[in-house]
Design brief:
With about 450 residues, the protein is of the alpha/beta class. Helices cover about 40% and strands about 15% of the residues. The protein is built from 18 helices and 13 strands. The strands form 3 sheets. The chain has a 6-stranded mixed beta sheet with strand order 4-5-13-10-11-12, with helices on both faces. Helix 5 links the parallel strand 6 and strand 7. It binds ligand F0G. The site of ligand F0G has 22 residues, from helix 5, helix 10 and helix 14.
Amino acid sequence: MSDNLHQLRCFGCGARIAGAEALPDFRCAVCGDLFEVEYPGWGERRGPDRPNPGALKWLWRERKSSSETLDRSGVWRFRELLPILDSFGDAVTLLEGNTPLYHLPRASKALGIDQLFAKHQGMNPTGSFKDTGMTAALSVAKERGFEWVACASTGNTSAAMAAYAARAGLRSLVLIPDGKIAWGKLSQAMDYGAVTCQLKTDFDGCLTLLTQIVKEAPIYLLNSVNPYRLEGQKTPAFEIAEAFDWNVPDHLIVPGGNLGNSSALGKGFREMKELGLIARMPRISVIQAVGANPLVRSLEENHGASLEPMEAHTRATAIRIGNPASWRKAARVIQDTGGWCLDVTETEIAIAKAEIGREGLGCEPASAVTLAGLKKLRADGKIRSNETVVLVLTGHTLKDADYTIDFHRGTLLTAEESAGKEAEIGALQRNAVVVDATAAAVLAAMKGSLG
Ligand code: F0G
């Protein structure tokens, strides 16, 4: 019996096709929009394929103590809600997911919100949330017999894809913008054996070119236009709901780049609600960098009816995206859940990142937009002190060590960017100091740090 229960539905015109009928660029042949995975059997109230919420909660908890490989993956532990493979035995896994949910005591206190948490997706095998999506979509690629997989990337997708491709014994092709990705991520793609091309264009240019290439050669596209990526990326929603004993938090805050992640998390919560696993959805808010804020503009200017691509600039290179593929899906998630979409400055990102570091967690700059955004939402009175808030930290701090070092050395922000914030920034900076190799000098350095 096949484990496969899915079909694809166009997000724009509603056309339905079988998974194997998707075009290489995953665009609808009728209207050009993106597809979403759907499970027809879930709609029939008493049908044999409709999952039973009580049984699932029990089963998923049991699997936490199982030693079976699939059960130990935080994605495939929930496999009843992503029946996308002919056989779950084909899944390519690095035991992703099951990431920690941390309380943020310092930020909680500073913002007057008791229940403030970080879901740290940077604690995945390759250091970012992309692993949860990659295990799903790359497993489909393998099952469908592809030899080559490819992605355009600001760095993390390529690191994840290259790792999972290596695990599966597939070849991988990475297109990245020349000079605009963090070295840690580039080094991963190299180590995992990807063919890595640095193109003299930005992320949006890389994705456009790759879309052409996959139409000409049998290469499986693994960007988040691939709807199976989002199936894996929805599973942190299940983990969060489970961690709160199926009483979902009031508010989830997610960074926005190509907008696949916010779309996926929204889908995860929506499906849980439809299946009766949870009683309500959290508000889902998306935060972008001021220099890469096409969704903020779209929602402000025309309520998400259209999106004007822009040339993107931000030091948070992971979200340096001006023409996000999944913007319609993300706009729907924000609107359906009553969330907000706003942008934060380079200075706000840098400060928030250092503050998350002070919590003993750390994250990459793109992840820190969540805390920066929360501060704004709190200041605007949009989040009350008794609400439960979860920030989704998408990448590990070691992904972009240059950014962190530049911040602490005082070479990251311009004088203009720091203006008025010097004291706040100074209190967070901890540059390494060169001292004589004597006890007295080291003790003096310690004393100096208290000042
Ligand atoms: N945070 C990090 C660390 C990312 O790497 C990305 C996206 C995002 C947030 C935004 O997520 O695109 O789903 O809205 N990185 C992609 C990449 C684009 O190629 O690694 P999104």
